[in-house]
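Lab manual, section 2.4: Encoding a predicted structure.

Procedure: take the sequence of the chain (303 residues), apply the prediction step described in section 2.3, and record the output as structure tokens. A sample record is shown.
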Amino acid sequence: MDNITLLYNFSDYNISVMIKELKHYNLPESIDDGNRSITNRDLYLVEAGESEIERGTQWDSGGRKESNLLVYCTKGEGTVYLEGEQVPVSGDQFFIVRRGDIFSFFPDPKTDCRFLYAGFRGRKVKHMVREFSVVRNLVPSVNNMVANREMLFYEIFNNLSKGFHDQNIEYVNLCFGHLLATFIFASRTSDDIADEINPVMRRALSFLEKNLRKKLTLNQISREVGYSPTYFTTLFRKETNYPPMSYFAHLKILKACEFLDYTKMKIKEISFRLGYSDPYYFTRDFKKKMGMPPRQYRNRIKE
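Recorded output:
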């Protein structure tokens, strides 16, 4: 379900809620525990989506949650009421609502808010409970060795749009497990790991981040750190789970999303800014990674 404005009335608050569902997927209930693989029984997704919440309105859980809910704020700010506490929330912060809890979120009167969210269950969840229900900051750095969270969400969306066959669901749940880990162990995957990164890797990642405008080759990157392309690729994959050029391509698309979300730059200009000589190839790569072309990505709020 995409691009639908939902109107709810909450008599307790005497207020109408305007939520625009940019993306929303409910996984079918027919996928029960008996038919799940061992991996998926441990941790599995039940819903996922992206929502825009208009200023001056309210997002409410509509009663006690039947599953745990990861909520990631990507734009705006407001206040969440969770477990009897009132906590401010803004961009690059997240919280997790435990199964059986209720929550309400009120955007700041001056700004709309955008959230990525995922509902989940599983046998391992009870061991993670102590990590939940705390509003936490995220360190927005490509140097924390964690794949971009928004990209992981969109990878999940893209695959859910292809259907709910067994192999697809298996892949989606594995992606979600990685995504959830980057949140609940956020402190471990930012400051702590930044200090532990191999100095060669730190130099390589910094080099990639500073040269998004260029068409770098594997030889250029490996030469920068003083290793052969073969050895450097092995080291890079061991540390990031990505080949160097694939990781570099992900960084470019991440920067493209930033340009599309927060500037009025033309798509042609963005493609040149990111080292593409032809906007066609930029659009092709963007669609491959994000599941939609750049223009649709930019307009997803307006539709």
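Check your result against the sample. The domain at 197-299 is CATH 1.10.10.60 (Arc Repressor Mutant, subunit A).
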